[in-house]
Amino acid sequence: DVKVTQSSRYLVKRTGEKVFLECVQDMDHENMFWYRQDPGLGLRLIYFSYDVKMKEKGDIPEGYSVSREKKERFSLILESASTNQTSMYLCAGWGGINSPLHFGNGTRLTVT
Amino acid sequence: AQRVTQPEKLLSVFKGAPVELKCNYSYSGSPELFWYVQYSRQRLQLLLRHISRESIKGFTADLNKGETSFHLKKPFAQEEDSAMYYCALLTGNQFYFGTGTSLTVIP
C-alpha cells in the first residue's frame, strides 16, 4: 500500500513563527507537490518538485519555501507565519504518466 | 488562469436519483483529466481518470473535447457517495484542481 505521510495532523503556531511541514513518501516517486485546500477555493498548488534539490513555484508560492534534500522527503516552510496562511495543507506524490496523485492526510495549520 | 471550473459548490440529491457533477476545463493541448474524491475524514483519493474509461463505484465520466467538459455521472446516487469531489487537469507535470463540489445524498 503506497503511503504519503504528513508528520502533523494539526498545528497551532503564532504569527511570525517559522513553521515546517514535513512530508515523506515511500513510493520512490520523483514528483512531489504541496497544495493548500481552502473552502470555495479548492486545491491550489504552492510548490512542486520533480527531483531531489529541484523545486518549481506553483500558483501561490508567496510566503512559502520548500526543501527536497532527499527523494522521499519534501518539506514546506513558512518563513514567518501569518494568519492568512491558516489552512489545510496537502502533500502529494506522483510517479509520472499513468500514475495517480497520492495524497497525505493533510496538516491543518492554524496561525494565531 | 482558471484551468478547471466546477460551477456547483454544493449539490444535494435524493438517494436513488441521478447525479451529475459538472467540470469544464481550459487547455489547448490534449487533456488528461481526473476526478478525485474526499470522503469525510479521509484523504483525497483518485476516483477515476478519463483514459481508463472505467466505471468506479457506479460513476462514469466522459471527456467531451468539443464542449471541453468532463462531467461525472451516476445513475442512482447512494448515501455513501456523499463527499467532496474535485475535477483535476494534468498538463505536463502539474495537476490543476477545480474548486470542488460538495455532494450530499439525502436518504
Molecular structure report:
The complex is a heterodimer of chains A (112) and B (107). Chain A has 112 residues and is mainly β. Chain A has no helices and twelve strands. In chain A, the strands form three sheets. In chain A, strands 2, 5, 6, 7, 10, 11 and 12 form a seven-stranded mixed beta sheet that branches. In chain A, strands 3-9-8 form a three-stranded antiparallel beta sheet, with no helix packed on it. In chain A, a hairpin with a 6-residue loop joins strand 10 (87-94) and strand 11. Chain A is globular, with a radius of gyration of 13 Å. Chain A starts with a strand and ends with a strand. Chain B has 107 residues and is an all-beta fold. Chain B is 0% helix and 50% strand. Chain B is built from no helices and eleven strands. In chain B, strands 2, 5, 6, 9, 10 and 11 form a six-stranded mixed beta sheet that branches. A three-stranded antiparallel beta sheet of chain B has the order 3-8-7, with no helix packed on it. A two-stranded antiparallel sheet of chain B has the order 1-4. In chain B, strand 7 and strand 8 (69-74) form a beta hairpin. The model of chain B has no long low-confidence stretch (mean pLDDT 92). The A-B interface holds A 31, 33, 35, 40-45, 48, 50, 58, 90, 92, 94, 96, 100-101, 103-106 and B 6, 9, 34, 36, 43-46, 49, 86, 88, 93-100.
